[in-house]
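Sequence only, no structure available. Ideas?
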Amino acid sequence: MGIKSKFSFYKDQPLFGLDIGHSSMKVMQLEVALNNRPKILGYGVSNYYPQNAIENGVIVNYDVLSQALHELFSERLIGAIKTRRVACTLPTSHTFSRPMKLPAMDKKDIADAVHLEAEQYIPIPVDNLYIDFEIVYEGPGGIDLLVVATPKNIIDSRTKFLQSLGLEPVALEPTMNASARLFSLADSSSNQPTILIDFGSVATDIAVFDKGIFVNSTVSGGSDTLTSLISNQLGIGISEAYVYKSHYGIGSSDKLDHMLMAAKPMLEALTREVRKIIRYYLERSAGTGRKISQIVTLGGGATMRGFNEYLAEQLNLPTKGLDPWHKIDFGKLEPPSQLARSMYVTVAGEAILRPEEIFG
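Reply:
I predicted one. C-alpha cells follow.
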C-alpha cells in the first residue's frame, strides 16, 4: 500500500520499480506471468552520489540524481527497462504507518475519520501530509485499517523529479512495504507474524508483518555507521574498517571482542526497539492467539557474519536472512553476485507490484 490517489493511468501497461536510496538508486523490471516465476527483464544500480542530495527524505539536488539515473540507464543497466511507468520507494524512516480501528460506518466517511484519527498520533499537521489507508477487515464490530502517512514535500519532490525525466509515477510506497511484498512472495512462512529488519546503510527499519505491515519503526545507524564505529574502536581508517567488518563481522573470530564492543551501542539500540515493537504488537493482538514467531533480516548490512545469530540470542527468536531469489527468474541475464543480491531486495519488491494493488 502506498500513496496512489494522486495519479491517473491505464491498468494494462507494465511498470518498473525504482528504489531511491541514501546514496544510490536501483531499478528493476519484471515480467509476471500466471503460474510462472517473475522474470527479470532489466536491473541495475547507479553510481554513488552525495548523501546531501537528499535531505530528510526530500530530493534537493535534482541534477545529481538525474545524472546518476541517466548513467544507470545508459551504462550500468543489465537487460532492458521497457516502460516509462514507475513505482518508486519512499524512505520508511520518514513515513508513519500503524493499524487503526474505526466503528462501522459508510465507506464514504472513512477518509474523514482516518484524517481525524491521524491528527492524534502523527506529530505533523495533517494538511502537510498525504494519507492513504487499506481496509484489512470490515464487519459488524468495526473496521480495521492500516494507515500510511507521508509528508507532502517528500512525495512532491519525488513526483517532480520523476516527471522531469519524462517518467510516469504510478505509485509511491515505503521501502519496507516493498520488501514485505517480496517476503510474502518468497517465504512460505510469511503467514506467521514476523519481525522484518532492513539493515540499511545509515538507518535500520523494523516492522511487524502479519498478513501485511502491522506497524513499523526506524532506528538510527546502519552498515556505514558500523564501519565508522569499528574505525574508531580499532583506530584504523574507514577502508580498513570496512574490510574488517566484511571479513570478520560479529561472528566467531579472534577479533570478536573488539568488533562486538564497536557494534554494541548500535546493536543494543536495535534490540531495544525490536522489543518495544513486539510489546506493541502483543498488546493489540491480545485474544487472537497470534505471537511473533521469527525474525527475517534483509538489506546489505544483514549479510554481516554473526548478525542473525546475535539477534536470535538476544531476542530469543529464530532469525534468518531473506533469500527470495529462488522465486525469481533471471532468464538469460547475468545475475548479480550472491553478496550484491541483497541490495536488490527492495526494488524487486517494488517491481512485482500488481495492478490490482494500485487500483484496489
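The domain at 1-94+152-187+323-360 is CATH 3.30.420.40 (Nucleotidyltransferase; domain 5).
Hope that gets you unstuck.
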